[in-house]
Every structure is written in structure tokens, then in C-alpha cells.
Amino acid sequence: MITRxxxxxxxxxxxxxxxxxxxxxxxxxxxxxxxxxxxKLVQVDAVNVAGAYRGITxxxxxxxxxxxxxxxxxxxxxxxAPDSGRYQPMVLVNEEILMVQAGKTGRIKVQTFCGAAxxxxxxxxxxxxxxxxxxxxxxxxxxxxxxxxxxxxxxxxAIWAITNDKGAELSGVYDYARPELSLRLLALVCKAVGxxxxxxxxxxxxxxxxxxxxxxxxxxxxxxxTFQQIxxxxxxxxxxxxxxxxxxxQKVFENQEFRAAGHEFxxxxxxxxxxxxxxxxxxxxxxxxxxxxxxxxx
Length: 298
Hints:
2 domains, alpha+beta, about 300 residues, six-stranded antiparallel barrel, 5 helices, Immunoglobulin-like
């Protein structure tokens, strides 16, 4: 099925293929935005045009200070830093091409994600400057997001898990409506940051894009975990969530009998109203702990 997204991707690929040929024929100087900035051939400004951090949010403005026509490639993973450290940097999702005549200004609107969860959302007309291009480790994640059209909370959580460099946030790279896709994305993110796959997942409130407000509330609404247990004989089991004093604060089931077989137990830990700390989700037989998962509530 041909979709609007697939057509746009095909057009984008065609533009990239034509980029080299067109430049060679016309004698146009071709270079990346990073190289043009370093060689001081251009001046770059960027302005938030949406009052948001995710989506088509930012207009990049390139002034060509040279005496040649330049064709600029703005790399996927380019970072634009805000004028104020209070606000989020923007991470460019796609690779873009912009041709700018000598002594003229070129403009292009680009799709972005937020690059710092703890920072405030931008307001319309906030200005940014070119800062750098993300390390190659981010690119497979960005490509996967683009290929699967994950320009939503799931895609943003993956970016934050890399740019914030906090392994605990890996648990948030998951959407229960899209489990298989989430796990494929999470595997790429874990590879990028060099950390193991988390053994539980967190559910957060929908991300907000309110100007001058934090984008991310770290405390989860729920923590979801799964236990798989093979019983070779009937057993009486208890499954629950325990605090650091060993007290059960949430019961899934208690002293329930299970036959000899393979079992899978799901846990939804309601975390919205508990205090910050480390909790244990335990599957026990009497005083014996069969399995345990430690979870962190920020």
C-alpha cells in the first residue's frame, strides 16, 4: 500500500541522488553544514516556529557569506543549541538539503526531537545556534524511528535514553500497544548506550509540549514486569511489591496454589503515589524468594 509517508521518503531519496549530479553540473560548492560553519562560509540561525519540541518545529536559516553558490547537507542528528540553557536543544531527525545563492539566505523547516528531558519546552520564536552533530551511535536509532514513523512519545523516549545517558530511562522506551516494535527499538538504544535490556518497563503520563514547562515527568504511573516460572510440583506462591523494609505494599496474589507446569505472571505496580526509592517485585514460596526484580521510582 502506497502511503503519503512512503511517497515522501521516496522523494527525499530522489533529492539526495540528484544532489551530487546537480551540483557537479552547475559548479555548485557542496558541503555539510558542519563543514560550512567550520570554514566560516555560512552563518546559521534557527528559530522555533511551533512552540513545541517534537514535529516540524524549527526553521533553519543559513546565510551564505561566500561568493559561490553552496549546496548544504544538514546531517541527520544535527544538534541546535538554545540561546538560553533553560531550554531544550533540538535534535534533527532527517537529513536535509538546502541550496543557497552567494550572499543570500536560505530557509528550511525541519523535524526535531528534544535532546534534554529535564529542560524546558521552547516557546515560539526562541532562537537556536548550530552546535554539533550527534555521535554515530545515535544514527541507527534515528533511522529506525524514521523508517517506522515513530515521531511520537516512543521515538522521543528513545532519544532521551541516549542523550540523557541514564540507564534507568531505558525502561521507558516501550509502548504496550506496540510491543514488538518497542523491543526492536529498545534493543537498538541499549546497543547505542552499551547497557543491557531492562527487565521491566515503565508507563508515564503522555508527554507535554507546553512552552516554558518541563517536557518530562520522571515519575512513572505504572511499572510493568513479567515473571516466568516452571514448577515441577504444585506450590503455594505469593507475588507482590515490597518496600525497602520488606513490607508488601501491593499484592498481586497471596498464598495461591499453582499446579506443576510453566506459568507466566504479570505485575502492574501502581507507582504514581509511592515515595521515591527502590522497590522489589517478588515471587515467593513461603519465605523463599523464587524471583525478584528491583525497580526504581524517581
